[in-house]
Automatic annotation (TrEMBL):
It is a multi-pass membrane protein. The chain crosses the membrane at residues 25-51, 63-88, 100-122, 143-165, 198-224, 236-255. It comes from Chrysemys picta bellii (Western painted turtle). It is found in: Cell membrane; Membrane. One of its GO terms (molecular function) is G protein-coupled receptor activity. This is Olfactory receptor. Belongs to the G-protein coupled receptor 1 family. One of its GO terms (biological process) is cellular response to lipid. Signal peptide: none annotated. Keywords: Cell membrane, G-protein coupled receptor, Membrane, Olfaction, Receptor, Sensory transduction, Transducer, Transmembrane, Transmembrane helix. One of its GO terms (cellular component) is plasma membrane.
Amino acid sequence: MSAVNDTKIKYAMFLLTGIPGLEDIHLWISIPFCFIYVFSILGNSTILFIIKTDPSLHEPMYIFLSMLAVTDLGLSISTIPTILGIYLFNFREISLNACFAQLFFIHSFVFTESSILLLMAFDRFVAISNPLRYASILTLPRISKMGLVCVLRGVAVSFPLPFLLKRFQYCRANVLSHSYCLHQDVMNLACSDITVNYVYGLFLTVFTVGFDSLLIFLSYVMILKTVLSVASHAECLRALNTCVSHLCAVLLFYIPDIGLALIHRLGKGSSPLLQIVLG
């Protein structure tokens, strides 16, 4: 009993969380999740298949789109097992090592996707502001190198996370806030000093998601400036229409991601349901 009171128990497992208060209908909740993930995998796989088999789509815009589809597939595969495990089988336990591995892949794909969205904004900027040099600027070798840099950046900044978390003892609690593991969620369960993790996590958020979103915003400012200088109203609308889908993807990606990062660091008294919805 004294060991419990002194919080000296070391947990070997984390417990993942579904939607609180709705445990009795988890099986029904799993149905829309199954449909969402099936459509995600089939949709992204279809995009990759069409782009690969149609030579007319071997252009920078569609190559960037295929990169985005690959990262979306990676995110889906990284999160599907534990989410469906909770809602279908009520399996909430995950070992520390499995949790660390999952969060590494999730954060790697998130940071990679952020970089790819930035590349897609750059692609639209070049296409609209300098269409005559578009093909000469975004050549296939250059696009390949840019894609490789995005992947290396995502892996490099996420690589230290499991090792930073592995050095802790987890004895305060073992219940996570989501149906999968995130660095900022796991580190809050440690009974050690998490200053290094906190600073590094904040640096990652600012350096990757924050920096990329700022550059995307600036690129759209430049795009808007270029489009408004076009005399023809029809040409102006045509140029903006090529950016709509990318802008929607940017908003759907960055708003929940930044919101979740702020909640985990600043919103200690926030609603658990809000965290789950954003997650």
